[in-house]
From TrEMBL:
This is GntR family transcriptional regulator. Signal peptide: none annotated. The keyword DNA-binding applies. Keywords: DNA-binding, Transcription, Transcription regulation. The lineage of its organism: Bacteria, Bacillati, Actinomycetota, Actinomycetes, Streptosporangiales. Residues 210-233 are annotated as: Disordered.
Amino acid sequence: MNATKPPRDRQGMSARVLDHLRQGIKDGLFSPGQRLIEADLTREFAVSRGTVREALGRLEAEGLVEITPHRGASVRQMTRRDVAELFRAREILEGGAARLAAEQITDSPLRSSLEQELVEQRRWTEATDISGYTEANAHFHDLIIEIADNQLVAGLINQLQTHTWRILFLGFVSIDGVRTSARQHIQIAEAILANDPASAEALMRQHIRHTADDTLSRQHPLYRSEPSGRRSR
């Protein structure tokens, strides 16, 4: 056995802890700034402290957790600049994905799925309840990424998604916001189905900029103070 790697069963247990904590942070079950106490996690998952530390180390590398000496791990809070940079990266990547999707939609086996999604988004324009919209929103964006059929682009976007959906789960959604988002989704889907790459990219970028502006206009404990000498955009 390679001494630099944990045993296979420990790797599996670490992955289980990692997946649970990552999903919990994404879904807002763990609040920004909340401590993740090793002893509690060890008891909850019936694993060793080494396994818990390995999972927390992975989450720190992903930017979801902060580990500080003498205090341990806590759910990372984001600055406004962090959020602005996140949405800017999404704008560039998902705009490109929408362009690729429009270029390939004619021959895509997922064309009918996008047509069905168009019907679903029209339903959301008359929504009176936001329940389920975060998942519906994620499904729309995931479908376009799948249609784009570029594994490198998909991988880069996926690295950003946990942070994005974490923000949305933490209360940055309203009825008006849902209806506006759905109308924008309809425009994007129609441009893709019309084989209009330029419009699809422009509309997707506009959609993400709108979401960014709305998110950054709100106050929320997700945000922490900017480090000295660094200002949000």
